[in-house]
Amino acid sequence: MTDTIDSLIAEIEAEYGIVAERIGKDKPDPRVLAALREVSRAEFVPADRRADAYANRPLPIGFGQTISQPFIVAVMSDMLALTPDSRVLEIGTGCGYQTAFLARLAKQAFTVEIVAELSAAAKGRLAALGVSNVEFRVGDGRQGWPEHAPYDAIIVTAAATGEIPPALLEQLKPGGRMVVPTGTSMLAQELILVTKDEGGRIAKRSLFPVAFVPLVKVRRA
Asked: Please, are residues 216 and 191 in contact by the beta-carbon 8 Å criterion?
């Protein structure tokens, strides 16, 4: 049976039920559900994988990177608690699918990608789709994008293999939220929700196990 957006959303809603106690909600925010319907994943996967566009699993996009599982995109977006006035930083543009979600949910998105080819392709893809509230940068995501800080929210779409990069914690606005996978290997990662209170104090909460490609300092060969 061919996957459809309706079957994908039904699967995502079922998975929310499974992790409800850990994430503090049993269904996606209505704005996240709307983004799932309106941001066509088929526009962001390689042409030879479009038959799998609405399968609830990650897919390769080249350069050793993947487009994330739609459930993970939904949960990570949801945990940021974005509003129409939010300014959000994304570390790891990839193909631009998560970026398109952020652009729909926030006022302004800033996205950093270490692979220049992926950044250029994502920029062109979002421009073709009429998305105009995203700024792109090629660079080391561990350093964030200090020129536009502080951010209401930060999302990291690759796993920090040690500590969460200090620059990202610094660039998070008081009252802000960050979602970041951490772990030493793809078999030992957790999705972490980071909050910063108005006094600048950091709190971290593990949500559930995940498997992301690592957050790298230099482009892989």
From this structure: no
What pLDDT is stored for residue 164 in this prediction?
A: 95
Is the CB of residue 172 less than 8 Å from the CB of residue 146?
Answer: no
| SS3 readout for the chain | CCCCHHHHHHHHHHHHHHHHHHHCCCCCCHHHHHHHHHCCHHHCCCHHHHHHCCCCCCEEEECCEEECCHHHHHHHHHHCCCCCCCEEEEECCCCCHHHHHHHHHCCEEEEEECCHHHHHHHHHHHHHCCCCCEEEEECCHHHCCHHHCCEEEEEECCEECCCCCHHHHHHEEEEEEEEEEEECCCCCEEEEEEEECCCCCEEEEEEEEECCCECCCCCCC
Q: Whose structure tokens read 């999705």?
A: 191
Q: Which two tokens stand for residue 56?
A: 């609830």
Identify the structural domains of the chain with CATH numbers, from first to last: 5-210 (3.40.50.150)
Are 15 and 73 in contact by the 8 Å Cβ rule? The answer is: no
Q: Is 49 exposed, middle or buried (0-12, 13-18, 19+ CB in 10 A)?
A: middle
For residue 74, what pLDDT band results from cuts at 50, 70 and 90? very high
Q: Using CA atoms, how far apart are residues 93 and 199, in angstroms rounded to an integer?
A: 30
- What does the pLDDT average to over 57-81? 94
**Where in the sequence numbering do the catalytic residues fall?**
68
Taking only Cα atoms into account, the Rg of the chain, rounded to an integer number of angstroms, comes to 16
